[in-house]
Prior knowledge:
Blueprint: E1 3-5, E2 18-20, E3 28-32, H1 37-57, E4 61-65, E5 70-75, H2 81-86, H3 98-108, H4 111-114, E6 117-121, H5 127-134, E7 138-143, H6 148-155, E8 163-167, E9 176-181, E10 184-189, H7 213-227, E11 233-238, E12 241-247, H8 252-268, H9 272-275, H10 285-296, H11 301-304, H12 322-329, E13 335-339, H13 347-354, E14 357-362, H14 369-379, E15 382-385
Parallel strand pairs: 6-7, 7-8, 13-14, 14-15
Antiparallel strand pairs: 1-2, 3-8, 4-5, 4-6, 9-10, 11-12, 11-13
Helix pairs in contact: 1-7, 3-5, 5-6, 8-13, 13-14
Amino acid sequence: MKELPLKYGCNPNQKPSRIFMTDGELPIEVLNGRPGYINLLDALNSWQLVKEMKEATGLPSAASFKHVSPAGAAVGLPLSDTLRKIYFVDDIHEELSPIASAYARARGADRMSSYGDFVALSDTCDAVTATLLKREVSDGVIAPDYTPEALDILRAKRKGTYNVIKIDPAYVPEPIERKQVFGITFEQGRNNICLSDPALFENIPTQNKTFSAEARRDLMIALITLKYTQSNSVCYVKDGQAIGIGAGQQSRIHCTRLAGNKADIWWLRQHPRVMALPFVDGIRRADRDNTIDIFIGDECDDVLRDGEWQKFFKERPEALTAEEKAAWKAQLKGVALGSDAFFPFGDNIERAHKSGVEYIAQAGGSVRDDHVIATCDKYGIAMAFTGVRLFHH
Length: 393
């Protein structure tokens, strides 16, 4: 198939709309549903991310995309009991396969941003992964293949309209890419930079020059995620998964704050009192996620005031105090951070340190590099200058 007509483009008034190949056949097959323009942008960008992450780490990988930027990305490491609980997969009594674990991590780290996402899987989608997918609000999934059981489960989602796309994993795009803006064609070489090259982490200007194997893996995951994230962008990673992505901001410090706030929320969700919140029976998954997000935040009274808490809880929980939050956040350690370009000021490092960052990979090359290095040294952070910029638009 050389062409796939779409219902409309980014918006209903943008017609006609299609995807097509000038040479050869499309590398995708729609097994179910009718994907739209943004669906396919998310599908193809997220597929590139998980394919590259699998090649870099050797582990099954998954991504949750929303409006052409990743909301989550992860590799298929086993989940602790705590992660199973906060990702709401602890009711699955069978063992999670590596690709199911990758999906649970990618979808679960930032559940608010992943609501209504498009999912990419580096490996064949099996029945347990499809079971996890079926119960989340999602627009579709792309994978190299599906087991018959998984396909049956997914075809029943959203009254049979769920988008299921199969992609040829051997497909290699042309080395030159083009796009039109205002009737003018832009052309450039594809961004084929290899982010698993050990040489990326050899230029270490900080006093702390020690990167554990896990830190290098997490920094690779951060950089690969940023490669497919709208600039400016910053990504926090811990234990093989993105825990905070800040993207699309004009200011990189705002990206750092946004991603850091998401990382803090991910960590606060693991606080014993948050994990023990007494939700009413039958609460919808989206309502539960939103309630947790508000409860953790500075406007917790919105779900705790009389007349409101009864909608969500069997009994009114006590809010976490500022001191309790600070004490819990102080326990977060070993976080890796990647930036799509250089950090121009040390305040990025100050903010990152508050969310447990101990390892950083950034391009370097700012006139303020000396200040950034000094701030890293102040906190004992190991930082590598990669010399690589990862702007994506």
